[in-house]
Structures are given as structure tokens and as C-alpha cells.
């Protein structure tokens, strides 16, 4: 018996040494030739984890199994010091993580021509080579100017109000007639219909359902390993993308051939010109529509799901919200839609929207790629061609910047002026989310109409939260939904 115990203990000790040795060798391999940079700077502290998979298992452990995503950064702070910059290997790449307002701002503020970081999204083939989220430098500036012209004008925001509200109102009626819904799924479809109506004026239910299925396939591929073999999510996503591109290209060509002028974003993009009087190419219009829907569809529906979830759990906030909304409706005639002027008066609703967007942390981090030699951040060497993951989530749940950060408390916004770099839910710098006003407006409209006439009750209020791929209630916020009495 003693011999067996001795043999087992020895095997365990040897195994532990082997594990440490393999990880040490992997670290040395990634750091070869990088030990000392300019001015004696070193790569930030951290670990490259296991060969090939790096620290992905630890990421999955914190996000998927423990469901405590903030442990991932907390562990690194505890192990390597609260310096806000660590090396790791994640999602297939050697990577630097930054997680302080200053460092995040420095990375996100950089543009390729003059700066050190370019966009670093995996799966650029799926997003589209001429999509704003993928192109860099001068091309990025050019496409972005077209988008901002189409997106951020008061005319565009008014159009959003007129298009989206009837869709929201009729969807809520449908939910009330169903009685029981899985909010996340229903909201996703509603948001898809409304974003497609605004961007491309598509209204056919059959076509929209087909497109939504293709989009779900595309999303699954963006989150998967880039292995293009039949049967993989990535392979299927490429097919979905091709079909989507085909549908949108047909629409652009049809409009051109027939000289049709529609009141939507596709038209604004087709008609907009740059400083040389050039239009966007057909493919640029199509790929940017694909990426706008990608950027705007799941993110906003996620926040709206959280709205129903938190308001069900915080009745005092719901009551205050209803009070403000009643004040607005009392000034309007029956069934009159919400206007931009009304929204300016809805101070409390605005705070609820900001708090929802902060707590949802739809984008927990942002990817960049290092494109220059000799980049130094906070005295640490940042190797060329490595990825940088700007971990914005950790700032939004840091008690140094937000009191009791995991509590849903819209009133915190009454006297809180976030310091620079501490409210970066929409990013920062040249790639700051062009859909930010769009998203806030949708959340406010949603709150207004849902609180006005309906009530809802979570079926599983203690269901817990899932953080992969985006934070959402485990059961998708299953609920009873009905007319308010
Ligand atoms: C609550 C909702 C939303 C959140 C939290 C969000 C968040 C973000 C963040 C953090 C970025 C910066 C990415 C980077 O720096 O690489 C971004 C970029 C972007 N977002 Fe949003 N977004 C939201 C809604 C929308 C909507 C409604 C649209 C469009 C309909 C949109 C379209 C885009 C696009 C096209 C980019 C890329 C911009 C560029 O690379 O220049 N987003 N978004």
C-alpha cells in the first residue's frame, strides 16, 4: 500500500514539474529575441500558457464555467501586480492585454498611418474586406466619412424614430398575445426587422426570416475557429455571407437599373460622395451594410433584453421610469409617436439607458494588431504583429470608477461625470462606434413603449448569467408578457 502511495505521489510531483516545464518552454519560445526592447524595455509580465491553445482554457474557465468573467483580469492583477498590462496567448495569437483607462485610450486612440495599432478582428473574410471595421488608414477614414454622413445626421435619427416605433409597437402586441416569450430571441428578431427596414427598406417577412437565418450562421462563424472545411461553423458562415452579399448586391443593382430612390441608409451610402466627388463602389456599399447589421443587431438586442431583466428585478426603477414616461404621454395625443424633442426631456430614461449599456458590457473587449516595431506602452515592449486586447469591461465594473459597480443603479448618473477613458462602452478614438446615437435612441424608444402599456414577469429570476459569446440571462430571459391593467 505504502509503495503505491509513494509511486502515486512521485508521479504527481513529476507531472507537476512536466506541466511547469512545458509552459516555461512555451513562454521562452514566444519570447525568443524579445527579451529586451529599445531602452531596455521588456515584454509585459504574464504567461503564454500552453502550446497552441495558450490561456484559452483559463478564459473559458472564467467566462463559461465559473461565469465570473472579471476573475480573468483579477487573477492577473493578483499574480503580476495591478499594472493593467499583461502578456498572454488568446484566440490563437500572442497577445497583450491592456485594462487601465490610460492604456486603453492610448491603444484605441491610435490610427494606422500615424500610430502603432490597426484593427485586429479575427475572421476579416467574414466581415468583408472593405467593411469599415476591417479597413485601415486612409480607406477607413473615407468609408467612415460616408457612414457618419448617413448615420449621425438629425435626419437619420428622425428616420429611425419613424421606422422603428411601429415595428416595436406591433411586436409588443404580438408578445402580449403569446403570453409567454423568450425575450432575447424575440427582441433579436424585432431588432433585425427594424434595422433592415432602416438600412435597406426590406419588409418581406419571408426574405427577412431567410436573412436572419443567414446572419445567425455568419455570427456563429465569426466566433468560431477559422477552419474552412465542410461541416465547420466557419465554412457554413462563408456560405451564409456569400448568400447575404448576393441578396444585397441584387438590391443595389436593381435600384441603379430602375433609378429607384428609397429613403434609407443604403440609398444615402449609394448617393454620398467623398472629397473627390467619388461614390462608394457597389461592393463597399454591400459589405458595409452587412457589417452595420452585424454591429447593430445583436448588440442592441442584448441591451434591450437586459432592460426587461433589470426592470423586472428593480421595481423602484421601473416605477420612476413609468412616471417620467407618463409625463411625456400626457402631453401627446393618443398613439402619437415619440419625437427627438420628447427624448431630450426624458432625463431619467436616458440615465436608465446609460446604465443598461454600461452593465450589459456587450463588447467586453476590442481587438487591435501591432503594426510597428519598437512600440512601448507604460515602459513595456509591445512586439510587432502581436494582438492587443483592450479589455474595456474591467473598467466598467471597477469600484474605483463606479460605486458598487455590479448594481443596476441609473441614479448614479445624476452626479457622475465619468473620467476620460472610464466609459468606453462604444470604444474610443477613430473607431468610436458610429451607431452609438442610433443604439441609445433604440433603447430609449424601447423603454418608452414597453413601459407604457405592458407588464412582464421573469419565469426564472435566479437563472443566472451566461457570458459567452455575450452576457445574457441563461434562459434568454423567459417571461410572462401581457398588457398592463
Ligand atoms: C449598445 C449597442 C452597441 C455597442 C455597445 C457597440 C459597441 C461598439 C464598440 C465598442 C465599437 C468599437 C470597436 C473598435 O474600436 O474596433 C463599435 C464599433 C462599431 N459599431 Fe457599434 N456598438 C453598438 C451599436 C451599434 C449599432 C446600432 C451599429 C450600427 C447600426 C454599430 C456599428 C458599428 C460599426 C460599423 C463599428 C466599426 C467602426 C469602425 O471600425 O470605424 N454599432 N461598436
What does this structure look like?
This protein has 485 residues and is α+β, with helices and mostly antiparallel strands. It has one domain: Cytochrome P450 (Cytochrome p450, Orthogonal Bundle). The chain is 54% helix and 10% strand. The chain is built from 17 helices and twelve strands. The strands form four sheets. Strands 1-2-8-5-3 form a five-stranded mixed sheet, covered by helices on one side. A three-stranded antiparallel sheet has the order 4-12-9. Helix 9 crosses helix 10, helix 13 (315-330) packs across helix 15 and helix 13 packs across helix 17. The longest helix is centred in the middle third of the chain and has 32 residues, at 282-313. The radius of gyration is 24 Å and the shape is globular. The mean pLDDT is 91. The structure holds protoporphyrin IX containing FE. Protoporphyrin IX containing FE binds at residues 108, 119, 132-133, 144, 291-292, 295-296, 299-300, 303, 357, 362-363, 366, 425-427, 431, 433-435, 438-439.
Summarize the structure.
By secondary structure, this protein is α+β, with helices and mostly antiparallel strands. It is 54% helix and 10% strand. The chain has a single domain, classed as Cytochrome p450.
Summary keywords:
485 residues; alpha+beta; Cytochrome p450; five-stranded mixed β-sheet; three-stranded antiparallel β-sheet; 10% strand; binds protoporphyrin IX containing FE
Amino acid at each position: 500500500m505504502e509503495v503505491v502511495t509513494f509511486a502515486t505521489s512521485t508521479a504527481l510531483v513529476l507531472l507537476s514539474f512536466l506541466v511547469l516545464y512545458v509552459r516555461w518552454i512555451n513562454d521562452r519560445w514566444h519570447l525568443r529575441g524579445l527579451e529586451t526592447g529599445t531602452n531596455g524595455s521588456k515584454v509585459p509580465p504574464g504567461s503564454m500558457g500552453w502550446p497552441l491553445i495558450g490561456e484559452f482554457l483559463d478564459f473559458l474557465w472564467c467566462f463559461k464555467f465559473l461565469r465570473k468573467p472579471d476573475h480573468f483580469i483579477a487573477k492577473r492583477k493578483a499574480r503580476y501586480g495591478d499594472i493593467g498590462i499583461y502578456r498572454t496567448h488568446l484566440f490563437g495569437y500572442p497577445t497583450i492585454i491592456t485594462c487601465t483607462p490610460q492604456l486603453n485610450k492610448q491603444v484605441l486612440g491610435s490610427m494606422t498611418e500615424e500610430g502603432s495599432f490597426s484593427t485586429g478582428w479575427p475572421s476579416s473574410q467574414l466581415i468583408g474586406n472593405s467593411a469599415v471595421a476591417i479597413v485601415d488608414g486612409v480607406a477607413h477614414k473615407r468609408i467612415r466619412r460616408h457612414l457618419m454622413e448617413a448615420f449621425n445626421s438629425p435626419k437619420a435619427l428622425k428616420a429611425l424614430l419613424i421606422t422603428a416605433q411601429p415595428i416595436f409597437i406591433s411586436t409588443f402586441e404580438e408578445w402580449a398575445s403569446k403570453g409567454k416569450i423568450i425575450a432575447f430571441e424575440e427582441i433579436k428578431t424585432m431588432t433585425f426587422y427594424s434595422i433592415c427596414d432602416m438600412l435597406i427598406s426590406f419588409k418581406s417577412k419571408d426574405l427577412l426570416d431567410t436573412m436572419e437565418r443567414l446572419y445567425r450562421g455568419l455570427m456563429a462563424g465569426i466566433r468560431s475557429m477559422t477552419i474552412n472545411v465542410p461541416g465547420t461553423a466557419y465554412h457554413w458562415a462563408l456560405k451564409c455571407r456569400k448568400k447575404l452579399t448576393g441578396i444585397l448586391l441584387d438590391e443595389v443593382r436593381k435600384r441603379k437599373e430602375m433609378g429607384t430612390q428609397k429613403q434609407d441608409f443604403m440609398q444615402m451610402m449609394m448617393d454620398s460622395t467623398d472629397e473627390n466627388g467619388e461614390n462608394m463602389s457597389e461592393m463597399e456599399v454591400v459589405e458595409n451594410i452587412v457589417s452595420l447589421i452585424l454591429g447593430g443587431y445583436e448588440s442592441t438586442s442584448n441591451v434591450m433584453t437586459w432592460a426587461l431583466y433589470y426592470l423586472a428585478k428593480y421595481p423602484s426603477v421601473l416605477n420612476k421610469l413609468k412616471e417620467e414616461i407618463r409625463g411625456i404621454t400626457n402631453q401627446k395625443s393618443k398613439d402619437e409617436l415619440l419625437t427627438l424633442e420628447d427624448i431630450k426631456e426624458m432625463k431619467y430614461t436616458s440615465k436608465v439607458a446609460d446604465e443598461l449599456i454600461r452593465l450589459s458590457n456587450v463588447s467586453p473587449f476590442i481587438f487591435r494588431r501591432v503594426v510597428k516595431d519598437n512600440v512601448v506602452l507604460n515602459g513595456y515592449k509591445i512586439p510587432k504583429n502581436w494582438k492587443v486586447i483592450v479589455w474595456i469591461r474591467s473598467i466598467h465594473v471597477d469600484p474605483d470608477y463606479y460605486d458598487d459597480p455590479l448594481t443596476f443603479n441609473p441614479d448614479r448618473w445624476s452626479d457622475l461625470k465619468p473620467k476620460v477613458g472610464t466609459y468606453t462602452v462604444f470604444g474610443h478614438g477613430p473607431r468610436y462606434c458610429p451607431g452609438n446615437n442610433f443604439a441609445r435612441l433604440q433603447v430609449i424608444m424601447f423603454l418608452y413603449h414597453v413601459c407604457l402599456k405592458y407588464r412582464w414577469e421573469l419565469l426564472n429570476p435566479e437563472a443566472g448569467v451566461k457570458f459567452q459569446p455575450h452576457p445574457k440571462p441563461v434562459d434568454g430571459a423567459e417571461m410572462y408578457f401581457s398588457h398592463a391593467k
